[in-house]
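Fold sample X.
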Amino acid sequence: MPTDQLSTTFAALADPTRRAILARLASGECSVTELAAPFDMSMPAVSKHLRVLERAGLIERRRDAQWRRCRIEASPLKEVVDWAEHYRHLWEGRLDRLDRYLQELTAKEEESHDRKQRGE
């Protein structure tokens, strides 16, 4: 069954190791060896993560003489941002309503406290 690009991107981003790799690549291109350094795993395991990211279109790998270099491809992330943007508006509205409610409760508590202080 074919999977849409957004699902493929989310699947690739679901793993913390792959997110850490993308975070490292956000600061610039580097070698596979440099990407693997912070992780306590074998090079074949790192390569599997890189293949998942590459299939999702999130990274591009190339050979530079004997070095294998990787760089981030951010275009699939735009689709994620666009998808999340719709929900951001929803949550902002809910959080705004919650903020108003909490302000009302605080005002009522302060009013009640003031009445008790005045002996009413």
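Fold sample Y, listed below.
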Amino acid sequence: MKRLFLDANILFQAAHNPAGKSALIISLGKRKAWELYTNTHAIEEARRNFEIKSPKNIHRFLRIIKQIKRATYSGREHCPPELPDKDKPIMISAIQCKATHLITLDQKHFGKYMNKPRKTAGIIIQSVGDFFENL
């Protein structure tokens, strides 16, 4: 079974646009199409973005995160060194929860690693669109 680790931008997008592809990933995960994981770093980043950009939709966000398992972060795993410090907990948590995929919209920091599992401890980093296209 696929095990998806969701970045903060996926959590935000899913709650902000309940008819979008990010919300569909969570909906299908709830129906056991795959396992869903995130971590406290991603949750807190998404929460801050809601407080700033879309406070009226925070109730959707709070409902969504209840459906997602929490991955731990010990900071002891290897991480691609080119990632900024703020993104390392995302990648390391994905490794530690044995994710098959890290789903993110962050092209700036993760873009050069997308679809290159040999460089990312076997994890396939993809956008939501790429993930659905490759199913």
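Sample Y note: The domain at 3-133 is CATH 3.40.50.1010 (Rossmann fold).
Also: The mean pLDDT is 94.
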